[in-house]
Design brief:
Elements (H helix, E strand, L loop, with lengths): L5 E3 L14 E3 L26 E3 L8 H8 L1 E7 L3 H10 L4 E3 L1 H41 L4 H19 L11 H13 L4 E4 L2 E4 L15 H15 L2 E7 L2 E4 L1 H12 L3 H17 L8 H8 L5 H4 L2 H8 L16 E6 L8 H8 L14 H7 L4 H6 L1 H23 L3 H4 L3 H10 L5 H4 L9 H21 L5 E2 L11 E3 L3 H20 L4 H29 L6 H8 L20 H4 L14 E10 L5 E22 L4 E17 L7 H6 L28
Parallel strand pairs: 2-11, 2-13, 5-12
Antiparallel strand pairs: 1-3, 4-14, 6-7, 8-9, 8-10, 13-14, 14-15
Helix pairs in contact: 3-4, 3-6, 3-8, 3-19, 4-5, 4-6, 4-7, 9-11, 17-19, 17-20, 20-21
Length: 694
């Protein structure tokens, strides 16, 4: 995408939170996301009204050239990790700039590990017990033999995927049909599924374990089984232009499945469902509660109800703002999903801004859609002007609608899960002219805004990566010290991170954890909150144009050093100390950054109807050094600080080719800065992870 001439220059701070796998099907020229919400009558314009300057242009330059021109230079050095990079600055006796990127990397890495621990200890056992209970009850159940066989196929596939081995059916299903589905799911190949007596489009590549789920066979099996239960729809009714037809065979299967839920099975289901809601977001499909609510309105039950009565009973509970599967234009689905993937606002944005919801053939979204509509970065709005020119007023209005809706009071969404609080935390880094106008140069420039955009999108990539399964789709004797320091001057961001950590600690009280696991996790969240609180206090001083005092600088010197001065001065990298290392639950991840990549959107066909299978990925490579020359006191004196920022990039593949972290790392996780950031990167830099400070 070409850079445009203008961008909002006021900027908030570098914040990057891990964003994990965004998996939202792009809608082809026959797609439609069903049951859309009506747009608000009034649409606000969130574009920057002031503080606009030319975007940085050109191929970059030397560090000294970039510092002289923009006050910012990115990428002169790389590091194997944030800790190693900051320790190197400590050795070099450089004034330090503490970036939000660095702090959030510790949070993001730990969130991934905490989630895996919850899955191992609670969710995998709950899934196994749920499937065992349902299949045992099915073996004993009387009733419609066709419905029993249909459910036997569905549940036996899930059980086989969860166990990693063939499981025999219990109610007359065809073992060969089950084996074929399991093979497609395990190999992650195929685009069609025969189930419940009919066929439906089904993207088996979505069952390919990605993110942290490649770490062990148990996690891979859990990923496949949960993806199956979260993406296979029981299509109770289908409608064309409001003319609905109920599939009685599917309706009988759903009714029988509901009867299989014994009290113990319901306990296991609630464990899985409530954990996803607390961590990621609300459901985006009809499951047990919605089905039960609909059944209460059918006095004679499903069998005696007319098609119109069935649709009237269940349609209010079955709306999907992000469709689970490809749905033809003009076609609507009323479906039940056992453990549907969760609604996340950023996926909703992608859904609303692509063909299917738009009449124009915009087949692939851009992460800038999220930056503009969710994170409210004014520079992203400017960078999207090419998209506006290409796709017209319809796209422009849809973008404005999604931006406005993200501002609407909705505490159940934005405070209801750690995922959406994470997004809200990142939003605090977006430039705000009124708030940031008093910051020293270059912290109110367009160039700085691009640096913040890089931070936000890198963190968003990590967030999607961490939640790729659950978020519904549309990673010697010398004295060492920092003689001075500067913290990203955004108190509201640090306050939001502090509150996010406190809510994370509170969530540990409700999640299904073993007692011995709870205390160390709560201690971790308490530490993050404490660090964020100290950095918030420093940012507030900077806002008041007060220098950091001796106590503040001393605290910064404990960032990568145990005693604040000598520890490991001749080579501290292999034994991480200081409060920064404690931001990682797994200390092994402090010293070596793990590059991550997440697929976030799928474009099955292009605007000409050709099958292309394009997949949009967002990725994060090892951190890069940033140099910032700040003009204090209106330029009366200047100081150059150094820190480390995230290395965000994007990649599109074809033929449904989905990257894993391991493949990305094996290719060197090359950093290709987006066009809007390239002018701020040091020329001649090799953007693959180099040795860096050791």
């Amino acid at each position: 995408m070409s850079r445009l001439s203008k961008v909002a220059l006021s900027s908030a701070v570098t914040a990057a939170v891990g964003i994990a796998g965004w998996a939202l099907w792009a809608h082809s020229h026959r797609n439609r996301v069903i049951l859309p919400e009506d747009p608000p009558a009034h649409v606000e314009d969130h574009s920057a009204a002031e503080h606009v300057e030319d975007l940085p242009t050109g191929p970059g330059g030397t560090e000294s050239q970039l510092l002289a021109k923009y006050g910012i230079a990115i990428g002169g050095r790389s590091a194997r990790s944030f800790h190693r990079g900051y320790a190197d600055l400590f050795h070099r006796h450089e004034p330090v700039y503490v970036t939000a990127d660095a702090i959030l990397e510790g949070w993001q890495s730990s969130y991934d590990d905490i989630l895996a621990r919850v899955e191992y200890r609670a969710l995998i056992p709950a899934l196994e017990r749920l499937l065992d209970a349902l299949r045992s009850e099915l073996a004993r159940a009387a009733g419609d033999e066709e419905a029993r066989r249909d459910l036997d196929t569905y549940l036996t596939v899930a059980a086989s995927l969860a166990s990693g081995k063939p499981i025999a059916p219990v109610a007359g299903a065809d073992p060969r049909a089950i084996a074929e589905i399991v093979e497609n799911a395990t190999s992650a190949q195929g685009s069609g599924l025969a189930l419940f007596g009919g066929g439906m489009s089904f993207d088996f590549t979505m069952l390919k374990p990605r993110g942290h789920y490649t770490r062990s066979p148990e996690l891979q099996q859990y990923f496949r089984a949960m993806s199956w239960l979260g993406r296979v729809e029981f299509r109770i009714a289908e409608g064309n232009d409001g003319d609905w037809t109920v599939n009685r065979r599917v309706a009988r299967a759903v009714g029988l499945l509901r009867r299989l839920f014994t009290p113990d099975a319901q306990v296991q289901w609630r464990t899985l469902d409530s954990t996803q809601e607390a961590l990621v977001g609300p459901p985006d499909s009809m499951s047990l509660p919605g089905f039960d609510a609909g059944m209460k309105t059918l006095a004679g039950g499903l069998e005696g109800a007319s098609d119109a009565d069935v649709v009237r009973a269940f349609l209010p509970h079955a709306r999907q703002r992000i469709s689970t599967q490809i749905v033809e234009r003009g076609h609507a689905i009323l479906a039940f999903v056992t453990l549907g993937q969760r609604y996340v606002y950023d996926s909703h944005v992608f859904s609303e801004l692509t063909f299917g919801k738009l009449r124009t053939t915009r087949m692939m979204p851009t992460p800038l859609d999220v930056a503009a509509a969710v994170l409210h970065h004014p520079g992203a709005r400017t960078l999207l002007e090419d998209e506006v020119q290409r796709y017209g007023a319809e796209y422009q209005r849809a973008l404005a609608v999604m931006t406005t809706q993200s501002d609407a009071p909705n505490p159940a969404l934005w405070q209801g899960s750690l995922y959406h609080r994470w997004l809200g935390t990142l939003r605090e880094l977006s430039p705000q002219p009124t708030r940031d106008g008093g910051l020293p140069a270059p912290l109110t420039s367009g160039a700085w805004g691009m640096r913040l955009l890089n931070t936000q999108l890198a963190s968003w990539a990590e967030l999607r990566h961490a939640n790729i399964l659950y978020a519904k789709q549309s990673v010697t004797g010398i004295i060492c010290e920092y003689p001075n320091g500067y913290v990203d001057p955004y108190p509201s961001f640090w306050a939001a991170l502090e509150e996010l950590a406190r809510k994370g600690g509170a969530a540990m009280e409700t999640l299904p954890l073993v007692l011995g696991d709870r205390a160390p996790l709560q201690e971790y969240f308490q530490h993050v909150a404490g660090v964020a609180g100290r950095l918030r206090e420093m940012a507030e001083k900077e806002r008041r144009n007060e220098p950091l005092d001796k106590r503040d600088v001393e605290y910064l010197n404990y960032m990568v050093s145990i005693d604040g001065k000598h520890a490991g001065c001749g080579g501290p990298y292999e034994e991480p100390g200081g409060w920064y290392a404690d931001l990682y639950m797994n200390k092994k991840e402090v010293l070596d950054f793990k590059p991550v990549i997440a697929d976030v959107h799928t474009e099955p066909v292009d605007e000409l109807g050709r099958n292309v299978g394009r997949v949009l990925h967002v990725a994060v490579s090892p951190p890069r050094e940033i140099a910032i020359t700040i003009r204090h006191d209106g330029g009366a004196h200047t100081q150059t600080y150094r820190g480390y920022v995230s290395a965000y990039s994007e990649r599109i593949t074809e033929n449904y080719d989905r990257y894993t972290d391991e493949r990305w790392a094996s290719e060197g996780a090359p950093w290709t800065p987006p066009a809007w950031l390239a002018p701020l990167t040091v020329s001649g830099t090799a953007f693959t992870p180099d040795a860096g400070p050791r």
